[in-house]
Write a structure and sequence with these properties.
The structure is a single chain. By secondary structure, the chain is an all-alpha fold. It has one domain. 20% of the residues lie in helices and 0% in strands. It is built from 1 helix and no strands. The longest helix is centred in the N-terminal third of the chain and has 9 residues.
Length: 46
């Protein structure tokens, strides 16, 4: 499942994760989550 980080968490994730890293995420899914618009963009982690 692709995970999208936003805000400050996106910066923290970019510092600590690299492509194809496996991570564990806990929490719950909600049926009324906000709509995410996917765009054709490629970014690299530095």
């Amino acid at each position: 499942i692709p995970v999208i980080f936003q805000g400050d968490l996106a910066g923290i994730a970019a510092c600590h994760l690299k492509e194809d890293d496996r991570i564990h995420i806990s929490g719950q899914l909600s049926a009324d989550s906000p709509q995410i618009v996917m765009e054709d963009r490629v970014s690299t982690l530095h």
